[in-house]
Amino acid sequence: YGEVATMDTTIKVPDMKCGSCAEKIRAAVAPLAGVTGVNCDVPAKTVAIEGGTEREALVAAIEAAGFTPER
Fold this sequence. Notes:
Layout: E1 7-12, H1 19-29, E2 35-41, E3 46-51, H2 55-64
């Protein structure tokens, strides 16, 4: 009782090319309400976000960091 349901969301970011890109994305997504973890996989070009945050908010944060996530 009182637990918040969490879910994991994976977003493909084709223009994430290096560790610096991953850090920018992590810095943009991590402060969002509900995010409990961010794991960027540069070779796979994916960002796995742990927590109960709406996908649209995650996509918007990645776009604001200058990247083009797949919707």
